[in-house]
Amino acid sequence: MLNILSVLTDLLSLGTGRRIQYVISKGGSEALLQALISAARTEPPDHSILLPLLRLLARVGQRDRKFGLKVQKAEATDVILSLTRQNLGHHLNLTPCLWVLRVCASNVTAGTTLGINGAMELLFKVITPYSKRHIRTVRAAIEALAALLKSKSNSRRAVNRGYLGGLLRLYQDWHQNDVSNNYIYIRRGLLLCLKHITNIQLGRETFLGSRGMEILFTSVQDCLSCKNLDPIVTTVTQILRKCYPKEPLPVVSVRSSYSFPLPGNVKTEPLCVGFEDDYESDGEEEVEKDLDKGDVESKEEDYDLETDVNKLRSRPVLDRPEEELGQYEAMCLELFHNFQELESESEEDKSLEDRTENLPSTPSHFIPSDNSVKHPNYRWRNQSVTEAGPDPGEKNFKVPLQTWTKKEKCRRDIIDEERDGIETVQNTGSCEKENPAKSHVFTLRPLPKEDAWYKKIFNPECEASTDPSSGERLETSDIVTNLLEEHQENIPFHNPHFYVARAKCIKSIPAYKDLAFPDFWGHQPPPCGKPVLERQYGVQRDKILDDVRRLIQPCDVIGRTVYDLDEPSHSSPGTPGCLTFFSKFESGNLRKAIQVREFEYDLIMNADVNSNQHHQWFYFEVRDMKLAVPYRFNIINCEKFNSQFNYGMQLVMYSVKEALLGRPHWLRAGHDICYYKNHYRCSAAAGGGMRGKYYYTLTFSIKFPHKDDVCYLAYHYPYTYSTMMAHLDSQEQNRNPKKVYWRKQTLCQTLGGNPCPLLTITAMPESKKSDDLEQFYNRPYIFLMARVHPGESNASWVMKGTLEFLVSSDPIADLLRKCFIFKIVPMLNPDGVINGNHRCSLSGDDLNRQWLKPNSQLHPTIYHTKGLLYYLRSIGRAPLVFCDYHGHSQKKNVFLYGCSIKETLWQAGCTVDTAVITEDVGYRTLPKILDKVAPAFVMNSCSFLVEKSRESTARVVVWQEMGVLRSYTMESTYCGCSHGLYKGLQLGTQELEEMGSKFCLALLILHLKSLPCSKKVMDQAALLLDLDEEITDRAQSLKTRFANERDGNDRSK
């Protein structure tokens, strides 16, 4: 027997773990357990056999996942405990017994049995009292105890018997006496015991009652300066964070401060699903070392994939009566435009332009309804449309003459409506006339109040009128006039006059009266991009420990509310020594600000309207700051379990003083940024019965560039509804009407009463010849939309790039317009954007989960966008490409989500019969093109899987119900890029707009690759694309050289 054990020991101590796995597979664990039982029964015990046998069992048991079950099956639990008791006074024999005990306890069931049979009492006899004798044995006992305490029943037993207090005292003894840090593993082992005990509510309560927070907090201060003690610091941080007493958010209710009455008897969004209070998963504890490894992107969950082939291949029936679709004909007037009257119309248009030269353009207010005009020849086409553009049978699509005349009359009526609308604006102001009760004067937020600074910017005679202390903020004040005179016309497609005119027309729940300066003044991209912020090691644990200090050392905590959206009378703005906050402007979101310490503030975001969740977007004003002082801000009610703020993302800041000095930039800002779970929970009273919902803290520090400045902080580059409408006005004014066919209509009115614009953009026909007109009518459609989620402002910047390129004089844009007709809904959720929501509309619903069966009253923009797509399909003109622009908060880069039956089934592990399931792989063409032409786009980040949880999104519904093969969601990161030309850089508005223009370029290349083209178009495209490629290569080489020079400068520093 002894020889066999010696041979096994030699074999298993050499090489890799493959030998041990082989022994396990051949029943080695069971054989060793039987040998142990037999050896233990001999009298007296033969330790020459037991010791090597126990060492072998410990080694094999570590690799055997079922070792605990095998111990129970062999009824070896009592034998192991008996051997441990027998050897309490013989430490050389005791240590191998403890090793086996630890391995057994790794199985919760076996560990529970050991605990019932008195294992913990034995272990406490070994580890107490404090002594540096027999260190090896003490370490083995502590590790075995930590394994036992993973069992909840053992943890309760330990608490009830007073072991938690003993562990705290023992940890203090080891910490105080281990001056040279030679016994880190013992100290961490004791902390692991405490960590497991505090996984239960009783353990946390006892820990607090035993002053555990104070003991660990005080002890960890001695460890922060030594990196070798990081394992101790990390474990202490996790325990303190977990045991911090749970509190409700300091708000009356977690529901939004804003509510909106819904039409009819409609239920609002259900409350969030909560979690049990009694247990916290260790997996949710962000370990510092894991965060420092870099960005780990979440993968698609295979269990969520749709594996029902019939569902994937089905074409659902219409979600509305067929006769309703005729109303959308008025949104496709380009198909019925009679260009024979172009010359006579041009005179009228010129006269119209002269009258409206200095006014923002007014859209034609076509509101779909049951009484709208119906298409006389309308019919529903049941055939499956997998490719966009005209159906094969529709290639020579012509409108009958009598229908054409009818349509031209309809178009004339709409032009008359436009003219009447513009005259109304000119004479009285249409917005105020619509609802006099809601008319109000918009005022610009007060500017910085430093007198010397005013003298520098404005003429001395203006000083009296610009003193904000007067309290008067009139729209016609000298300060606004001077600002507009000073404004340099160097921000493309931004006009403050247009913006103010559009801002007056919005309808918001708070009835905004103030304009945020950045939206009024405009934004220019900074001259160069900013690198992803390098994460300072240990920043998260330092912030958490700073939060704990509030609890145990509250002497310097102020706790003053300085801004409160719910109770303005409870706030104390303008108090000496504190910042002043404000957020009641378009897209603003800040609910409450609490001054914690002199330079630290807790901030609470407002939930989406009619909701109690979706806290992510923030946008607010701050003023009265000191110079060169790091202010810390903690946004304490975030909801996502992780964020790109942990991987180098920064928020954005806009300085009014900088803007008026000629640098109107939204800049990435902030340092010491991290994101972690905090101690706030959703209480039953605040959540209407919901409990256990976790919140997370986004913390960052900022040094403001000027004293007494006015600065704006936001989650991402803001892009308001009024900005979008003013942008469209500028585009319409600046386009070349001889080349660009532009029509702006109102898709519908939103739930809040704001118009949702619909654009049609293409090229004017080259002539009035029948061939040119036929080519115009038969151009395939591209359908684009953005901003269904209000907080995804990056989607609007990408859309801005797309629109500016489409109406530009660029030869490629001109050729692209000749190839396609673009239908664009630039902002699908105006109400959400206006009222500062992150995810939902005023109904409290995520509109991108309503596409299966949208409600015409609650989700009008989705209902009518889907109706327009249905109409296009019904006349054989389903889009070649459908793309919904979004933003992504968890991943880097720009990428596409598409739809593929085969890829979904393959990913789910299903067998795919290629003879039965055929699929056009053309859906991959566009992302492959983008990967080559767009620097921010990464093909490897794309996914073409169809998930069950996404079946009601625009991408999946348009793919299934409209039969659009190339139906995509384009996701743009809030952060930066991990590949390509922009690797290591955070994306700015310039890069996002570039992505929008490159998407257009990719569409042109897709057209050349996928559709038949005339030789003239091919030759023109070949020349332009070669030229564009040459320019792109030159720009990339310049950027690469700049990056290399920057790296060289960094190294030289």
3D structure, described in words:
The protein is an alpha/beta fold and 1053 residues long. It is built from 39 helices and 23 strands. Helix 5 crosses helix 8. The longest helix is centred in the last third of the chain and has 38 residues. The two termini are 68 Å apart. About 14% of the residues have low confidence. It comes from Anser brachyrhynchus.
Structural class: alpha/beta
Q: How far from one another are the termini?
A: 68 Å
Strand order in space, largest sheet: 1-13-14-10-8-7-5
Q: What is the approximate shape?
A: globular
Total number of helical segments? 39
**Overall pLDDT score:** 82
Helix content range: 40-55%
Low-confidence stretches: 268-300, 344-430, 432-439, 458-476
Number of strands: 23
Q: Largest beta sheet, briefly?
A: 7 strands, mixed
Specify Rg, calculated over alpha carbons. 34 Å
- Measured by DSSP, the beta-strand proportion falls in 5-15%
Features:
1053 residues; alpha/beta; seven-stranded mixed beta sheet
Summarize the entry for a quick read.
By secondary structure, the protein is an alpha/beta fold. The strands form 5 sheets. Strands 1-13-14-10-8-7-5 form a 7-stranded mixed sheet.
Layout of strands and helices, then pairs:
Elements: H1 2-13, H2 18-25, H3 28-41, H4 47-63, H5 67-73, H6 77-86, H7 91-105, H8 108-116, H9 119-127, H10 135-148, H11 152-160, H12 163-177, H13 184-197, H14 201-209, H15 212-220, H16 230-243, E1 247-248, H17 288-291, H18 309-313, H19 342-355, H20 401-427, H21 430-434, E2 443-444, H22 451-457, H23 478-486, H24 496-505, E3 514-515, H25 517-521, E4 530-531, H26 539-552, E5 560-564, E6 580-582, E7 592-597, E8 600-604, E9 619-623, E10 630-638, E11 651-655, H27 656-660, E12 666-669, E13 671-681, H28 684-687, E14 694-703, E15 710-714, H29 721-734, E16 740-749, E17 755-763, H30 770-777, E18 781-786, H31 793-806, H32 811-819, E19 821-825, H33 830-834, H34 860-874, E20 881-888, E21 894-897, H35 901-907, H36 925-933, H37 954-961, E22 966-973, E23 985-986, H38 989-1010, H39 1015-1052
Parallel strand pairs: 1-13, 2-3, 8-10, 18-19, 18-20, 20-22
Antiparallel strand pairs: 4-23, 5-7, 6-9, 7-8, 9-15, 10-14, 11-12, 11-15, 13-14, 16-17, 17-19, 21-22
Helix pairs in contact: 1-4, 3-4, 4-7, 5-8, 6-7, 7-10, 8-11, 9-10, 10-13, 12-13, 13-16, 15-16, 16-26, 24-29, 31-38, 32-38, 36-38
Biased composition (Acidic residues): 278-289
InterPro entries: ARM-like, ARM-type_fold, CBPC1/4, Cytosolic_carboxypeptidase, Pepdidase_M14_N, Peptidase_M14
Main location: cytoplasm
